[in-house]
Design a protein that fits this description.
The protein has 141 residues and is α+β, with helices and mostly antiparallel strands. The strands form two sheets. The chain has a six-stranded mixed sheet, with helices on one face. The chain has a four-stranded antiparallel sheet with strand order 7-8-9-10, with no helix packed on it. The longest helix is centred in the middle third of the chain and has 14 residues.
């Protein structure tokens, strides 16, 4: 389902790809976009928001990562070269997928209960049975 926000999309500067987002994340992105969302495309795995400003998109990406811990990937692709200034013009794509676990959750790892203490590149936690620290990839839990 495509949702055009009342205008032709025209040239856009970047895309925010929210994957497996909840309503809070979508609402947060809409409220903090400063009116720069040109179009939204809803799909099975999430939503794509097309932005008219690199600056707003990158600021929103940093804020999303801080508020809702998750996986983020930022890429840029050469779109064109400005005829007047000869500067390269890039389009930015930001993919954000929130983690399914939160600090304080108890998860299973190799049949053991682990209390989540920190989320980063890996889930860092403590084995409940003996207090041993573990670092586990997100795929393993």
């Amino acid at each position: 389902m495509k949702r055009n926000l009342g205008m032709d999309i025209g040239p856009y500067q970047g895309v925010l790809q929210l994957r497996e987002p909840n309503d809070e994340i979508i609402g947060f992105a809409r409220n903090h976009s400063e009116g720069t969302i040109l179009k939204e495309e809803h799909m099975k795995e999430g939503i794509d928001m097309y932005f008219s400003s690199h600056t707003v998109l990158l600021t929103l990406a940093k804020t999303l990562k801080k508020k809702f811990t998750g996986q983020m990937k930022i890429t840029k692709k050469l779109f064109t070269v400005d005829r007047i200034t000869s500067k390269e013009v890039y389009r930015i794509t930001v993919m954000f997928r929130p983690y399914k676990v939160k600090v304080g959750d108890v998860v299973k790892y190799r049949g053991e209960d682990v209390k989540v203490k920190h989320l980063g590149n890996k889930v860092q936690g403590i084995l409940i049975k003996n207090g041993k620290k573990v670092a586990v990839s997100y795929e393993e839990i």
